[in-house]
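Suppose you are handed only these lines of text.
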Amino acid sequence: QNTATGALHISATRDSLMHDLADWLVKQTLQRPEAPFRIALSGGSTPQHLYRLMTEEPYVSRFPWQRMQFFLGDDRFVPHDHADSNYGMIRRLLFSRVPVPAENIFPMPDKGTAEQAAKDYEATLKQIYHGDALQAGKPLFDVNLLGLGTDGHTASLFPGQPVLQERTAWVAPCVPPVAPHTRLTLTYPAIHASRHVIFLVEGADKKEAVTRVRAQDPACPASAITSAGNLIWFLDQPAAPAPQN
Ligand code: 6PG
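From them, the structure of the protein bound to 6-phosphogluconic acid can be written out as follows.
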């Protein structure tokens, strides 16, 4: 299933959820040992537990860091050392603790205008995509890791925003209704260009949003997320929707 009603992986607790997803990610990196493994990471608080876990045994020695390439699914358009920068958070928790070559890390630009930064990031993605002979005609990302807001937003695709209508550009600036910062976000077509789209969601406060998105509630931007390959929900029990009878 490659729509937002995708497959469910339910773990008993937040801790077992993060271990299950770290295990799954290691397995994905072994699928195509000859190729770079491309993953777009999410911001927010939920994935921080995962990023920390990836820097510890048994995972830190199982990931093929040298051939992994890291991207951002979205970021605040702030300097990388700003407290609200997703890249800054991931650098602190993950990149600064594992041997990923610096040239394999692709933060969203933090200088100039948000419009130009979006264009520049898209150019970076296209250059990588078109420059990789192994990639021809295949999805750009191996994994796109997404979170979910209680309002059904994901990445920086917020309800009612013009970016929800974007069907060609891969990266767009947007001004979310609630947050102080302009954002840059991958668009629906960019997220679709993934072998696996993963929603990582935990906590009882997200159960209602998960249920609405899996029921394809059009008011939730996450409902329109699709994948060129698989779409899997990694949930802890409290966030899991009631079993459909
Ligand atoms: C971000 C994320 C955003 C996040 C949700 C859930 O940049 O903040 O892309 O979409 O995944 O807001 O955030 P929590 O994990 O903190 O609940």
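What can we learn from it? The longest helix spans residues 114-130. The chain is about 25% helix and 20% strand.
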